[in-house]
Write a structure and sequence with these properties.
Nucleoside Triphosphate Pyrophosphohydrolase, Arc Repressor Mutant, subunit A, 2 domains, 7-stranded mixed β-sheet, two-stranded antiparallel sheet, 9 strands, about 25% strand, elongated, hydrolase activity, hydrolase, WH-like_DNA-bd_sf
């Protein structure tokens, strides 16, 4: 996860210049089982070397000399999980002196969203797995990665007013019930359906279509879509230098 020389002993490693890495919190929505609430979930990678061998961690890795931070985040995601999200945002820089037990490590954290069709899809590897955000297995993660996940959740909860969030997590068309499920999963609480419907139908970023969701036993619900205009501020741009 860094370019620290293999010849350096522990004391020498601690006095070397900081190594630079990127890590990404990738969030998606998984449909609840047996009618239960939808849940936020994320893929993690099990570390196969020290430090923290055997522990789950965020996907990530080093930054190459001739790539931007955004390019490094996208490349490391593709290499470790096979995922290529269309939304990638720089989250925060984590650089506490002792966050790595072997050497000084500075991590640029990124934040990505996947739509429902992509959730659960990763490379076939026993060391890559999806977890619900409240799964007790990820309470203890390598390094300070649980802290990074919590920061990403805080950021997401402060972005729920943006229509692009629904667009990224649900796809091009969605029902108001599915959208409410997303908000409930993000906020961690139930929302009154009638109030939610009135609020969402009054926003300019969501508009109804002439399409309906087919296949149900009852009257099919109407489909809505994100109606934002202009350049999408959440569009990933891996060519831009960060």
């Amino acid at each position: 996860m860094s370019s620290v020389p293999g010849w350096a002993n522990v004391n020498e490693r601690r006095n070397l210049p900081p190594a630079l890495a990127v890590s990404t919190v990738i969030l998606g929505i998984r449909e609840g089982e047996d009618g239960g609430p939808d849940k936020l979930c994320l893929p993690l990678v099990r570390r196969i070397r020290q430090p923290h061998a055997g522990m789950w961690a965020l996907p990530g890795g080093p930054v190459e000399p001739r790539e931007s931070l955004g390019q490094a985040a996208s490349r490391n995601l593709a290499e470790t999980t096979g995922l290529r999200p269309s939304y990638l945002e720089q989250l925060y820089t984590f650089g506490d002196i002792d966050r790595s037990p072997t050497h000084r490590l500075v991590t640029i954290a990124y934040f990505a969203l996947l739509n429902a069709d992509q959730v659960g899809a990763t490379v076939q590897d026993e060391n890559v797995a999806w977890f619900d955000i409240d799964d007790p297995q990820i309470a203890q993660m390598a390094f300070d990665h649980r802290k990074i996940v919590d920061y990403a959740l805080w950021r997401l909860r402060n972005k729920t007013e943006y229509g692009q969030i629904a667009h990224r997590l649900l796809g091009e068309r969605f029902t108001l019930a599915a959208l409410r499920g997303v908000y409930e999963a993000i906020l961690g609480r139930r929302l009154d359906p009638a109030n939610f419907r009135r609020t969402l139908k009054s926003t300019a970023s969501i508009e109804e279509t002439d399409e309906y969701l087919a296949g149900g036993k009852h009257r099919p619900p109407r489909l809505y879509r994100y109606a934002g205009h202009g350049r999408d501020p959440l569009q990933v741009d891996t060519e831009q230098n960060n």
